[in-house]
Design goal:
266 residues; alpha+beta; 3 domains; four-stranded mixed beta sheet; 5 helices; disordered N terminus
Length: 266
C-alpha cells in the first residue's frame, strides 16, 4: 500500500501528506499516542488528492491531443504558378456535384472583359462571379488575370479602358450545381435567353430595316428556337454590333440597339 501511494505522489503537498501518514502509522504501532481514526483520516486525504491529480493529468492530455489535431488540419491556399496568378474559391465538402464551363479570354460587348468594375473597388473573382451569373451560372470559382490587354470593356457599364495599363481575364471558370431531381415538365415550356445572338451577333431590336421593333423581333427569335411566342423581353441600347433577323442587316456603332434578354414560351 505504501509503494502504491508513493507512486501516485506528484506534488509537494501530497508528499507531505504521505510523510504525515507514515509518522502516524509508526506512532500507532509503537504506542506513542496515535489513534486509528487519525491514521484513517490521513489515508483518505492522500487518496482523494491522488484521484484529483490523476483527473487533472488526464484532462491535460486530452487538451494537448485536441490542440495537435487542430494544428494538423490543412489550410486553403491560393496557387501562384509562375507569372499567372490563379485564384480559386473554396467549396464545401458536402455531397454536391457541380458542372463547369471554362471561358477563355472572356469578352463583353465584343471587347475583352475588364478586370475591375467601374469604381475600381471590385476586381478579379467578384467580377468573374458577376459575369457568370449574367450568363445563367451560379458564379465563378476560378479566374486568371491577363495583364496589359490594351482595350477592355467594363462590366455593367458603358465605360472602356484603352492603354497598356488595362487588364482583363485570361480565364474565367463558371460553375453550377447539378440537380438530381428532374424539373417538372411544365418548366420546359419557358426559357430565358440572355443576350440572344444570331451568327455570333447580338439580335437587333428591330426586325427589318429599323421597323417592326421589339415584339416582332422577339417573336421571330423564339420561333427560330422552337418556341411558340415571346413572353418577356428587355431592350438594351448602345450595343457595339447587332444583326436584324428579317434581312441579316448589320449595325455598328453607338446607335445600335438590341435585347438584353428574351423569354420564350411554348
Amino acid at each position: 500500500m505504501t509503494m502504491c501511494l508513493i507512486s501516485r505522489c506528484f506534488t509537494l503537498l501530497q508528499c507531505q501528506q504521505i510523510m504525515k501518514f507514515l509518522l502516524l502509522l509508526c506512532f500507532y504501532f509503537f504506542g506513542v499516542g496515535a489513534s486509528y481514526a487519525e491514521i484513517r483520516s490521513a489515508a483518505e486525504i492522500i487518496m482523494t488528492e491522488s484521484v484529483i491529480s490523476s483527473t487533472q493529468m488526464a484532462n491535460s492530455s486530452t487538451q494537448a491531443a485536441d490542440a495537435r489535431a487542430l494544428d494538423a488540419k490543412p489550410d486553403v491556399q491560393v496557387a501562384d504558378s509562375g507569372a499567372l496568378s490563379v485564384k480559386t474559391m473554396p467549396r464545401s465538402r458536402k455531397n454536391t456535384q457541380y458542372f463547369y464551363r471554362n471561358i477563355w479570354e472572356p469578352t463583353y460587348h465584343i471587347l475583352r472583359l475588364n478586370y475591375c468594375m467601374f469604381d475600381g473597388k471590385e476586381c478579379g473573382m467578384a467580377v468573374a462571379s458577376r459575369y457568370c451569373r449574367m450568363l445563367g451560372y451560379d458564379g465563378a470559382d476560378k479566374e486568371i488575370v491577363a495583364n496589359n490587354v490594351g482595350l477592355t470593356h467594363v462590366l455593367a457599364s458603358k465605360a472602356k479602358c484603352q492603354g497598356w495599363q488595362c487588364n482583363g481575364f485570361k480565364l474565367i471558370r463558371c460553375i453550377g450545381k447539378i440537380n438530381h431531381q428532374p424539373a417538372k415538365p411544365y418548366y420546359y415550356r419557358e426559357k430565358r435567353f440572355v443576350y440572344p445572338r444570331l451568327d455570333s451577333y447580338r439580335i437587333a431590336w428591330c426586325y427589318k430595316d429599323g421597323k417592326e421593333c421589339g415584339q416582332r423581333a422577339a417573336y421571330s427569335f423564339c420561333r427560330r428556337m422552337g418556341y411558340l411566342q415571346a413572353k418577356h423581353y428587355k431592350k438594351e441600347t448602345e450595343i457595339a454590333a447587332t444583326k436584324e433577323l428579317g434581312n441579316q442587316k448589320l449595325c455598328f456603332g453607338k446607335d445600335c440597339s438590341g435585347f438584353q434578354y428574351i423569354t420564350c414560351y411554348r
